[in-house]
Design goal:
There is one protein chain. Helix content is about 80%, strand content about 0%. The protein has six helices and no strands. Helix 5 crosses helix 6. It is globular.
Length: about 160
């Protein structure tokens, strides 16, 4: 779990170094640090995945301030809970579906906090975040679908 939390923090930092993609909503990210949270949900279970999301949120607070921590925690915990639920339901959703649901819920949790802080003005931002969450969530799901079997084999080598 510690390795996944560290990976989530490193991916978050690296993701912050990527310049904004033209045409994307301001402040939006690709969500690569969610790979660690999704993998924790898949391999270690809900409590470990939620712990990784918590560490990632606290890290955001330490490096970017209280609002960033609140946004990370609201989005991260909601998306992790939903992804864990979908993983329990099994194959009908697949990695891509789980990635998209996680991205949508992450944005939804952040929008809820932004609404509580600033009011109704942020509601107009929702359609743009939804459109951005679809391809980024699919990319995250596809990526995890490709690497999860390989990581599972590595785990077997190191822990058996």
């Amino acid at each position: 779990m510690g390795m996944l939390a560290a990976l989530a923090m490193v991916l978050s930092v690296l993701e912050g170094l990527i310049p904004p993609i033209p045409g994307t909503p301001p402040g939006s990210k690709l969500g690569f640090s969610n790979l660690a949270t999704m993998y924790a949900a898949f391999s270690l279970g809900p409590s470990s995945a939620l712990a990784v999301a918590m560490v990632k949120g606290v890290f955001a607070g330490v490096t970017r301030g209280a609002v960033a921590m609140g946004m990370s925690l609201c989005g991260g915990l909601l998306s992790t809970a939903v992804m864990c639920l979908l993983l329990k339901l099994g194959k009908p959703f697949g990695w891509v579906g789980i990635g998209i649901a996680g991205a949508l819920c992450h944005n939804g949790g952040q929008l809820l906090l932004a609404y509580l802080i600033t009011g109704r003005a942020v509601v107009g931002y929702a359609p743009f975040l939804i459109l951005f969450a679809l391809p980024t969530g699919a990319l995250t799901g596809l990526t995890l679908g490709l690497i999860a079997p390989r990581l599972a084999k590595l785990e077997g080598r190191f822990f058996l």
